[in-house]
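Sequence only, no structure available. Ideas?
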Amino acid sequence: MAFKAPSTESGSTELNFIGRGTVINGEILTESSLRIDGKVKGKIICKNKLTIGETGEVEGEIQATNANVGGKVNGKLYIKQKLVLESKSSLIGELRASKLIIDEGAVFQGTSDMGVSAQPSSVNQQPEKKNETK
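Reply:
I predicted one. Tokens follow.
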């Protein structure tokens, strides 16, 4: 489900929802913002803001520009700008972000890298493919 928000300067103005009681297995790719209150197992690529509500659960890889986590995440997070782990959140896994805010009460178990590049290392290290003719 997507709703149009008032126009902003930050690109897409749609907001997508994955509601409580919804379970998704697979890959999600969106140019818009995304809010998850259900369960997702797989890969999420959100080119805007990702919000995981208190009832939201994600297992897998997440790539987003900004993210607020209020629920549970088990996997790898690659956040280009800012990640906020809210007080009731739980993150178990690998984290790369430019800025990180951890509220009191949040659980974080894993590794973190606060470098300039919040891209997956596999993307940065892929060799260029050359066109070969036989």
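The radius of gyration is 16 Å.
Hope that gets you unstuck.
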